[in-house]
Amino acid sequence: MTAMRPAGCSVFLVEDEVMIRMMVADMLEELGHSVAAEAGEIGEAVKLAQSTEFDLAILDVNVNGKVITPVAELINARNRPFIFATGYGSSGLPPEYRDRPALQKPFQLETLAQVISSAMKGAPV
């Protein structure tokens, strides 16, 4: 199973709940990835999405009551893969991004590993 994981992805993580963000960061490190940047609000996430180098983003859909769409648009324009994390199911995803991978909160380490692997396989080289 270890051979299927992409080695050393750098991840941009957007999550407004500090404890969840810390937990996901720990999970990423356990899987051999690094956190390139973290944001807990949309304005900060927009700035980081424009300036940070990363391989993959994990985006909470609802950040302090605001939809993540502006950040997703920036990441999409940079041709970087991204994964949504949501407690609302796929119906809670922005309509234009319902084809993107989504993690249903709460998620397990194995699920995170599988979704990252899948997202990175479709990523531009």
Task: Please describe the topology of this protein.
Elements: E1 10-14, H1 18-30, E2 34-39, H2 42-51, E3 56-60, E4 62-63, E5 66-67, H3 69-77, E6 82-86, E7 102-104, H4 109-121
Parallel strand pairs: 1-2, 1-3, 3-6, 6-7
Antiparallel strand pairs: 4-5
Helix pairs in contact: 2-3
Mean pLDDT value? 91
User: How is the biggest beta sheet arranged?
Assistant: 5 strands, parallel
SS-derived structural category: alpha/beta
Task: State the oligomer.
Answer: single chain
Using the CA coordinates, give the radius of gyration.
13 Å
Q: Percent helix among the residues?
A: 25-40%
Strand content: 15-25%
The helix tally amounts to 4
Task: Report the count of strand segments.
Answer: 7
Low-confidence stretches: 1-6
Query: In angstroms, what separates the terminal alpha carbons?
Result: 22 Å
Please tell me what the overall shape is: globular
Could you spell the SSE succession in H and E letters? Answer: EHEHEEEHEEH
- Describe the strand arrangement of the main beta sheet, using strand numbers: 2-1-3-6-7
Please explain how this structure is put together.
This protein is α/β, with parallel strands linked by helices and 125 residues long. It contains four helices and seven strands, in the order E-H-E-H-E-E-E-H-E-E-H. It has helices at 18-30, 42-51, 69-77, 109-121; strands at 10-14, 34-39, 56-60, 62-63, 66-67, 82-86, 102-104. The strands form two sheets. It has a five-stranded parallel sheet, sandwiched between helices. A two-stranded antiparallel ribbon has the order 4-5. Helix 2 (42-51) runs parallel beside helix 3. 30% of the residues are buried. The model is unreliable at 1-6 (pLDDT under 50).
